[in-house]
Specification:
The protein is α/β, with parallel strands linked by helices. Helices cover 22% and strands 28% of the residues. A seven-stranded mixed β-sheet has the order 8-5-4-3-2-1-18. Strands 9-10-13-14-15-16-17 form a seven-stranded mixed β-sheet. A four-stranded antiparallel β-sheet has the order 7-6-11-12, with no helix packed on it. β11 (156-158) and β12 (165-166) form a beta hairpin. This is MBL fold metallo-hydrolase.
Length: 275
């Protein structure tokens, strides 16, 4: 059995004592491994975990999907809470990230560096392409960029000021879990394009993708793109779509209207279970 608990999301749930903030964090439990996937922006995900009695200190590893603050900023807090598990990131994770509006730069990075990891004796491993974390549990990076319409907003830049360049999100990684129903894919923000990511995984593992959970970054997509994206997802096996964080109301509406796909929003405190 695979259990995925939402520790942080933009949206609140029926559990009104939990705190929702802009960001994402999941705690994933499988028969072979326990994973903290993304950390939110600060220590709020820890407080939520305590209120739900989620055993976050048992995490075998921590995965930061990319180095934007709303996914990785809380890592520092988890370490200070006592979680010393191996950290997995994509390549170039520590390159500073910003938003640039044409005049000013706004820092969007994770807020920690390799010196912080060394100080706290945190083992750090990079996923540049494909890693098997345990039996049936895989990390993916270096996604194919086959869908040209899956563009990255030009405001996202990275590098040392003032010589920043457009962020291609080469640091983004995601998780795929093998289940009896097919692959369950957990994504953070899907900046390289959700279809680019899913098709990379499907071709590599040669298995249908049963469920996609997390942020799909369709929040800025128009109706045509959202409809096409869901249609293409179904072609590679999609039966369940658990949207979070940056997916947007339009994507949620289109998914709810699709009779072939079950869908929901994974808000703070929500759990997803699959055999």
């Amino acid at each position: 059995m695979v259990k995925i608990t939402t520790l942080m999301d933009n949206v609140g749930s029926e559990h009104l004592c939990l705190c929702n903030k802009h960001g994402l964090s999941f705690f994933i439990e499988t028969p072979n491994i326990r994973i903290l996937f993304d950390c939110g922006s600060d220590g709020t995900a820890i407080s939520n975990a305590k209120r739900m009695n989620v055993p976050i200190r048992t995490a075998d590893c921590v995965i930061c999907s990319h180095s934007h603050y709303d996914h990785s900023g809380g890592f520092r807090d988890f370490v200070e809470y006592g979680i010393k598990s191996t950290l997995y990131t994509g390549k170039e994770f520590f390159e500073p990230k910003y938003a640039f509006d044409g005049v000013k730069y706004t820092y969007l990075g994770a807020g920690f560096d390799e010196e912080f990891l060394a100080k706290h004796q945190i083992c750090h491993k990079e996923c540049r392409d494909f890693l098997e974390l345990s039996d049936g549990c895989y990390l993916f990076g270096e996604f194919m960029r086959t869908h040209s319409f899956e563009t990255i907003p030009k405001r996202f830049v990275k590098g040392i000021l003032p010589t920043c360049h457009m962020d291609d999100f080469s640091d983004e990684i995601c998780l795929a879990l093998s289940t009896s129903k097919g692959l369950v894919v957990i994504v953070g923000c899907s900046h390289p394009g959700i279809l680019n990511m899913l098709e990379t995984i499907s071709k590599r593992l040669k298995k249908p993708i049963y469920a996609v959970l997390g942020g799909t970054h369709l929040v800025e997509a128009d109706e045509k793109r959202v409809t096409f994206t869901i249609s293409e997802m179904k072609k590679i096996g999609l039966k369940l779509l658990g949207l979070s964080h940056c997916s947007g109301e339009l994507a949620q509406h289109e998914a709810m209207e699709d009779n072939e796909v079950q869908s929901c929003h994974l808000a703070v405190g929500d759990c997803f279970i699959v055999e």
